[in-house]
Design goal:
Length: about 240
């Protein structure tokens, strides 16, 4: 039986600079073979990072800077990474009431309810916003803790929830046109230690521009959570201060 031989060479440490020629060659090769991948993958990722780094009023922080987040465990599909983080925040903040704008498909409230045993969720559905009828509340048939609401956020009466909501979630991918009215309503509903989470910060231009504009006017900062599309405002001191 033949014994294969492996030539032993002393392994030299390779830094990023040493990898640069091979990486650049790979970028050129792959961009020529897959131009769509270049536009939809690399260039989009670079643009996302540039926006994140270039944000002047919304500061990006690592999830590890959220005080106590390392002790929180949630359950759900890994493909819904952002919503898992949202669920973890809701658990960390001990939310008893949640109001969400968007997510018409109902996956987000279902995931929140799955991870929070004692919670009441109000899910505002835009599906009837252009209708002429009165807003119609309804209870999710699969979970009595989820109440569906519908209407136009510019005219809807949110006063029954004033000062009672621990967490408001605004999905900008579904409601970019109503960011201002949704956010104004959110602040009116927040409890004393309430929080707002916007989804889509680095991916939705309308939300990026909107949060950059309003952040300096608020009493507390807005943070972008690195590795997610989430931006967070909280009346809790949830962020560990810089050393």
């Amino acid at each position: 039986m033949e014994t294969s031989r492996v030539t032993k060479r002393r392994t030299q440490p390779v830094g990023d600079l040493g990898l640069a020629p091979a990486v650049l060659a790979g970028v050129i090769r792959n961009s020529l073979s897959d131009p769509r991948g270049l536009r939809g993958g690399l260039l989009r990722s670079i643009w996302v990072e540039l926006k994140r780094f270039g944000a002047h009023n919304v500061r990006t922080i690592e999830l590890s800077r959220i005080r106590g987040i390392d002790r929180i465990y949630v359950d759900g599909p890994v493909i819904r990474h952002g919503m898992l983080v949202l669920s973890a925040l809701a658990a960390l903040l001990e939310c008893e009431t949640i109001f969400e704008f968007g997510s018409v498909e109902g996956l987000t409230p279902a995931l929140l309810a799955h991870n929070l045993a004692r919670v009441q969720i109000y899910s505002f559905d835009r599906s009837h916003e252009m209708g002429s009828g009165r807003p119609r509340p309804s209870t999710d048939s699969s979970d009595p803790r989820i109440t569906r609401l519908s209407g136009d956020s510019a005219t809807f009466d949110f006063s029954p929830h004033s000062g009672k909501i621990d967490l408001v979630h605004i999905d900008a991918s579904d409601r970019a046109a109503s960011l201002s009215t949704d956010t104004e309503a959110a602040f009116g509903m927040l409890s004393e230690l309430g929080s707002i989470v916007w989804y889509g910060f680095t991916y939705r231009p309308a939300l990026y521009a909107f949060l950059e504009r309003i952040a300096p006017t608020l009493d507390r900062p807005i943070y972008h959570l690195a590795g997610t599309r989430l931006a967070l405002y909280s009346r809790w001191d949830v962020v560990v201060p810089d050393l």
